[in-house]
Amino acid sequence: MYNKIINFSGRKYPGKNNLITDVGGLTVGNSEDKDIITGVTTLIPNQKFIASCDIRGGAPASREIDLLDPINTVNEINSIVISGGSVYGLDSASAITSLIGNENIGYKIDGSPISVPIIPAACLFDLKNGGNKNWGLVSPYYDLGVKSYKNAKIDFPLGNYGAGIGAVAGKLKGGIGSASITIENELVIGALVVVNSIGSTVIPGTNILWSSPFEINNEFNTSKLPTDYFKKEPSLIDTLKDTKLENTNQKPRENTTIAIIATNADLTTTELKRLAIMSQAGLARSIRPINSPLDGDIIFTISNNNIKIPEPREISITELGILAADTLARAIGRSVCNAKSIKNIKSYMDFYTK
Q1: Average pLDDT value for residue range 234-245
Q2: Range of the domain at 285
Q3: Number of domain units in the chain
Q4: What is the pTM of this model?
Q5: Would you say 262 and 190 are in contact if contact means Cβ atoms under 8 Å apart?
Q6: What is the CATH number of the domain that holds 124?
Q7: Is the distance from CB of 328 to CB of 276 less than 8 angstroms?
Q8: What spatial distance separates the first Cα and last Cα of the chain, rounded to whole Å?
Q9: 10 near 275, Cβ under 8 Å?
């Protein structure tokens, strides 16, 4: 562990790649099937990372979630998988379990010749996005899982990649997004997200993203949009329309926003749980509505514990939570602005410029 204690008042700016992989020891792999319009995104640590999570959506499709409760025994993860395909997508995590278990990666059991990989996973619903879902008895997710793992790298694209290829965000095309923030290039927080929400990412009556106040250095790349952002001054009625789901193409139980928050701060699993809870504010700042009975929203939090945080720890955790929520909001903005139109689902850029 690095002995210097971080100072939260230090200068803050995005990491080198503005991706979750700015947190050392992480890579991300993506795989897609463009005919089915679905895919898998896999986060892979190459050093020890402990984990926790927080579920706020009412319809999650997931595995190994209970294991991440701080009261349970095993807290080190070997991968985290985000997949399309709803429950079918869980095959992708099974595939990676078999793949790396065969390489003796995972939880070691005395007297056993194999290891047990710990691979939490969560899936989004993309079964009605226009792709060919007639795959018969064998789903494509086993192969997509293996490919995503083998494709892992530090620098990866955003938008229509991995689990984001079939995602829909309200009435717009969703996708995969990522962002990072660092304090003096020492403490780092990164976010990875796949946005497939029933809620809207855009303020009603405008083409302004809810996450726009958190943008840094034009990272949403929306400079092509008209400078007169407001089509009209949004009224209270406009805003209420958004909460009544009139600004969405999505239907009940067909939605999920899945995120991973990574940091190098020295945290316990209980503190990671609190960080996951606080990070949910990032969803609320950039998607409206969120955490509904119709979504399966999950946030994972992980840490390699390389950087010490100062006492009192409660204040440090609060600072981390603020930064994590803002970084997640930025990742959501980047996911929507990097997405491309598919079938009859328009991207943010196409919807507001064409």
Answers
A1: 46
A2: 2-353
A3: 1
A4: 0.91
A5: yes
A6: 3.60.70.12
A7: no
A8: 52
A9: no
